[in-house]
Amino acid sequence: MRGHRQGGGAQPDGLQDDDRNEQGRFEWTNDLRDDLLDCYESSSPARRGYMGRMHELWSGMHPEYDTFTAQGLRDYVSYLRRRGYVRGPQQPAVPEEQEPQIHIAEEAPPVAPEERLRDRTALHKTKRPKPQDLARANEELLNALTEEADIWRINCAVYEAVCSLSPRVHNRDSCVDRAQRRVKKMDAKILSARQQASRIQCVVEYKLAARPYTPKDMEIRHLFLTTILLSALDWVRGHGRLIEPPSRASAWRYGFDTPHNYNDHELYCGGFTRQWVKNEGKCGVCGDPWDSKKPRAHEYGGVYGQGLIVRKYGLGGIINIRVELTANHFGYFEFRICPDFKTTNQDCLDQNILKLVKPQEGVNHKNYRYFPKEGNKIYEMKYRLPKKTCKHCVLQWKYIAGNNWGNCPNGTGAVGCGPQEEFRACSDITISGKATDEPMVPPTVPVAPDEDYDDYNELEPPSSVVPPADEIPKPEGTYNPVSALIISVVSFLVAFLILFLLYFHFYQVGKRIREWLKSKTENKGEQKVSNMQHYPPMVPSRSKKRPAPQPNPNVRYGGANIA
C-alpha cells in the first residue's frame, strides 16, 4: 500500500528498524487486509468524504497504524481489488516484491499548488477540486491500471495538472468539446489550403513556362489582368444550368410563367467554403445552401419551386438531357428521379439513378455518369427512364466538379480528389404510359400540384394539345462566350486608350503647357523691368513753403486797440 507516515507510533509486526529506515516497508497480513476492506466498504465509497470516514474506522481498529493517510489506504484497497483479493485464511499472502511501497511524510511532495489554486478559485468564483474528489473520480481508472503502475506518482501528476489548468476545463465534457472545435477548425483550414493549392497550381505552371516578371512590364501585366477581370466578371462567375428539361430556375427562359432567376447558372450549394466548412458537405437537393431558410428557394414551396410541370415522358423511355456549361470545371454529371415532389430528399433521389443509353468511351466509370469534355458548350446526353409512372416527379441534375486539389483513396494527392464543388438543379416532369415527344405548352399561370398525390401510381396519360412548331415559345438568348470575349477586348482597348491619354496629358502636353505658362510669366516680368529702366520716374517739383501769418500784437480781439 502506498501511504504517508508521520513518524512515531507502534511498529507493525515483522517491520524491523533497518528495513523501515532503508525501504519504508512492512509486511501486511491477511487480517490487516480484511480489516482494511471492511473499513472501506463501511465508509460508503460512493459518497463524498468517504476517505475520511475510512481513515477514522481504520484508526479505531488499529490505532498503532493511525499514521497512515487516507489516500494511502485507499490506494492499497485499489491495489487489492485489482489483484482480485478474496477474504479468508485461504488467501495467500501478497508477494513482498509486488506490494506497493509506503511513503513517509518526508517523501511527500510539497503542496505548493494549494495557494495558487486558492487564488484562482477566488478570482473565478468556482469550486476548487479536492484530492478526495479527484481520487473518487479516477476510481475506475486506477482499477484498470496494471500492477506495476506507480499510483502515487499518478495522483501527484493529476493533482498538479488540475492545479495548473483553469477551473473551467476541469469538466471532461468541456475538454472534449474544445478539442472537437479545434479539430473542426483545423479541418476547415486544411480544406481551404487544398482549394488554394489547386488555384495556385495553374499560376505555378504559367510561372515556369513564361519568363519572370520584370520591373518594366510588371505594371502593364497587372493592368491587363485587372482590366480583363473587371470587364469579364460576369463571364467568369458563370458555371452551368440544366436546360432540357428546363430546371425550376431556368424555366422562365423557355416561355414558362415562373419567377426570373438571372443567376440560374450558380446553384452551387452556396460555394465550396459554405458547403464543406460551414455545412460539413451538406447541400439542398436543388442547389440551395443547406443552412438557408426553409422552404429553400428552389425546393417545393420556395420562390422558384412553383410545381410547374415542364415535360411529359413515357414509361421506360429514352430522353434527351441537355446541360449548358459556361465554365467547365471537369468532373461528371449524374441524374436522379424522386416521385415525391413535396418532400424531396436525397435518399429518395438515390433510389432512382438514371443510366446512360450508351456509356462514354475511354473513361473508366459506371454507366450512369457522364464526363463533360473540355470546353464551354451545351452537352447533350441520352438517358433511360425507370419503368415506373408518376404524376409529378422531380428530376435532379447533380454536377460534381473536379478542379480542386485533395487526397485520393490510395493516399496520394491530386486534382479531382477529396471534397469538390457541387452544382444541382431540379425539374418537374411527368412519366406516364405514353410518351409525348413534343415539348409541353407553357401555361399562362403556374399549375397547382394535386394534393392527393402519394407515390408512384399508374395513371391515365393526360390529354394535352400540342401547338404547331412555330407557336412553341423559343428560349431566350443564352450566354455566348465569343461575344463576351469581344466585349472584354473592347473594354481593354478603351481602358488602355484612357490611360494613354491621361499619361500623354500629364507627362507630355501638360509639361509643355506648364513651360509655356512659366515662360509667359517670365516675359511679363522682364518687360516690366525694362520699362522701368527706359522710363525713369519723374522728380517731384520743389516749392518754397510760405510761413504762416503771425498775429498783430497791437490789435485786440474784437477790433479794439490796445493802449
TrEMBL record:
<keyword id="KW-0812">Transmembrane</keyword>
<protein>
    <recommendedName>
        <fullName>Chitin-binding type-4 domain-containing protein</fullName>
    </recommendedName>
</protein>
<dbReference type="Pfam" id="PF03067">
    <property type="entry name" value="LPMO_10"/>
</dbReference>
<feature type="region of interest" description="Disordered">
    <location>
        <begin position="521"/>
        <end position="563"/>
    </location>
</feature>
<dbReference type="InterPro" id="IPR004302">
    <property type="entry name" value="Cellulose/chitin-bd_N"/>
</dbReference>
<keyword id="KW-1133">Transmembrane helix</keyword>
<feature type="compositionally biased region" description="Gly residues">
    <location>
        <begin position="1"/>
        <end position="11"/>
    </location>
</feature>
<feature type="transmembrane region" description="Helical">
    <location>
        <begin position="482"/>
        <end position="504"/>
    </location>
</feature>
<feature type="domain" description="Chitin-binding type-4">
    <location>
        <begin position="239"/>
        <end position="429"/>
    </location>
</feature>
<keyword id="KW-0472">Membrane</keyword>
<feature type="region of interest" description="Disordered">
    <location>
        <begin position="1"/>
        <end position="25"/>
    </location>
</feature>
